[in-house]
Design a protein that fits this description.
The complex is a heterodimer of chains A (111) and B (210).
Chain A lengths: L3 E2 L2 E3 L10 E15 L2 H13 L1 E2 L1 H24 L4 E11 L4 E13 L1
Parallel strand pairs in A: 2-5
Antiparallel strand pairs in A: 1-2, 3-6, 5-6
Chain B lengths: L3 H26 L5 H62 L15 E14 L2 H13 L4 H25 L3 E11 L14 E12 L1
Antiparallel strand pairs in B: 1-3, 2-3
Helix pairs in contact in B: 1-2, 2-4
Classes of the chains: A alpha+beta (111), B alpha+beta (210).
Chain lengths: 111, 210
């Protein structure tokens, strides 16, 4: 079972365990800026008074991060890579309403 | 006035005013229908404001109740979820026979057949009661235990989610695990009354042996 997104192997290690990297092809990245909608925001506000996990935000960020990884992968596909190694994630909250999720890594060819 | 919340508020108020003035004009044009219908029309114009007032009343009733609920149960709930994460960790450790998460990039056997990214996240926030306690803690200095509890319980929960994710996807081990903690809501002067939460995000490379 190879976990592959659209035919591209994604790992956050510098090498691919059990494989040999033959060519590096530069940095690829993908980002997404998401805002939560008002209804969820109100519910999260109510949940925040009581404390605990804010499930709406957890799901939102999970989905957005998958989207960012998907964009990074399509970037890698467009330059003809077969894997992305050393993937890092960065999160920045632009305002209280929106968060940017950014994924970047090095596109490589492996055998 | 620069924050988007304020802009949304201005747009909402302006559209409500426009809606009600248009309705008044419409009612005035149909005024030959009699006095009863004018009163009814005025009520219709005021309906948006009444709905807003209803929200205000509900909020003023609900907030103290939720605040007291949080004061009574929040720290106990945090403690309980921490214990729950620890006991689930014991279960998955017994199932795998070892701890499957490693922060080092290496230390795995040579016969790796496949690898891939695994990630898990969670957003956790202190209750308003805990914020109040933290405010008093800040006055005297020292450690802010209420926040520390929330964050460490959240981190234990997210690590456990990563373990469960790795189990579900069939990885034997997860190497190079990194944990990111980021504040979801930066505090600035424009937004004082927003949701306060910390996002904890853990990711690593799952590997599978032959």
């Amino acid at each position: 079972m190879e976990q592959v997104v659209n035919g591209i192997l994604v790992v956050n290690t510098e090498t691919i365990p059990g494989k040999i990297i033959t060519e590096t092809m530069g940095v690829v990245s993908g980002s997404t800026v998401r805002a939560k909608h008002l209804g969820k925001d109100i519910f999260a506000g109510l949940r925040n008074i009581v404390g605990g996990e804010l499930t709406q935000y957890t799901e939102l960020l999970q989905e957005s991060r998958q989207e960012a990884v998907g964009r990074m992968v399509s970037d890698a596909m467009s330059i003809g890579a077969t894997a992305v190694v050393n993937v890092r994630f960065a999160t920045s909250a632009i305002t209280s309403g929106a968060a940017e999720l950014f994924a970047y890594g090095t596109a490589v060819k492996y055998e | 006035m620069d924050s988007p919340d304020n802009r949304i508020g201005i747009v909402a108020v302006v559209s409500l005013l426009m809606l009600s003035s248009f309705s008044i004009v419409a009612v005035a044009q149909n005024s030959d229908a009699g006095e009863g219908s004018i009163a009814w029309g005025l009520m219709l114009c005021l309906l948006p404001f009444m709905i807003l007032a209803l929200f205000g009343i509900l909020w003023s009733l609900a907030y103290p109740a939720l605040f007291i609920w949080g004061a009574a149960f929040s720290s106990g709930d945090v403690e309980k979820s921490h214990q729950d994460a620890i006991s689930r960790r014991m279960v998955s450790r017994e199932k795998a026979g070892k701890e499957i998460l490693n922060t080092i990039n290496g230390g795995y056997r040579g016969d790796v057949s496949s690898s891939g990214l695994v990630h898990a996240n969670g957003v956790f926030g202190p209750s308003h009661w805990q914020l109040l306690i933290a405010f008093f803690n800040n006055l005297v200095g020292g450690s802010v235990t209420s926040f520390q509890q929330v964050i460490s319980a959240g981190r234990a929960e997210v690590m456990q989610r990563l373990r469960e994710q790795a189990e579900a996807q069939g990885w034997d081990e997860v190497i190079n695990v990194r944990i990111d903690t980021s504040s979801m809501t930066p505090q600035s002067q424009n937004n004082k009354n927003t949701v306060r939460g910390v996002e904890i995000f853990a990711y690593g490379t799952g590997i599978r042996y032959d």
